[in-house]
Amino acid sequence: DSLRRISATTLSKLLQGKYKGLYDEYHIIDCRFPYEYEGGHICNAKNINDPAELYNLFFNKKDYSKNVIIIFHCEFSSERGPWMAQFFRKADREKNRFFYPRLHYPEVYVLKGGYKEFYNNYKEFCSPQKYVEMADSKY
């Protein structure tokens, strides 16, 4: 696909503030099911797996002047996260259809390897420091 990827290492540096000054704000969008998110997620991530909720959060604004980084992920970032990122990019293109190639959010990424890879390498940035799989038999 045409989506840009961000590594777990780069995301950890972002969380540590090593890229401050290059952006105004960042959002981590966790596209997993609520039980996965509640079982452990990246600090400050928002659990959004509904496209309408995502759209309302980012595209019902009047001011798009901030430089915003948006990072999508799911368990492995192979299905749900990339799908939501593609939905997001398509919505941004539609909002700017008369001003191509302008985008309100040009800095959109998918976390390579998803929560699983991030958790395995940087669990100190996860809360709680746990990992519940989508296929967990309890759910």
UniProtKB/TrEMBL annotation:
A molecular function annotated in GO for this UniProt entry is:
protein tyrosine phosphatase activity
**Record EC number:** 3.1.3.48
Q: Which range is the signal sequence, renumbered to this chain?
A: none
Which parts of the sequence belong to the Rhodanese domain?
A: 22-127
Q: Look up and give the organism this protein is from.
A: Anaeromyces robustus
> Gene3D superfamilies recorded for this chain?
Rhodanese-like domain
PROSITE patterns annotated for this entry? RHODANESE_3 (PS50206)
In which family does this protein belong, per the annotation? Belongs to the MPI phosphatase family.
Q: Which SMART domains match?
A: RHOD
Looking at its record, which EC class is this enzyme? hydrolase
Which keywords annotate this record?
A: Cell cycle, Cell division, Hydrolase, Mitosis, Protein phosphatase
- What is the name of the protein in this document? M-phase inducer phosphatase
GO CC terms for this protein? cytoplasm; nucleus
Q: Which GO terms describe its biological process?
A: cell division; G2/M transition of mitotic cell cycle; positive regulation of G2/M transition of mitotic cell cycle; positive regulation of G2/MI transition of meiotic cell cycle
What is catalysed by this protein? O-phospho-L-tyrosyl-[protein] + H2O = L-tyrosyl-[protein] + phosphate
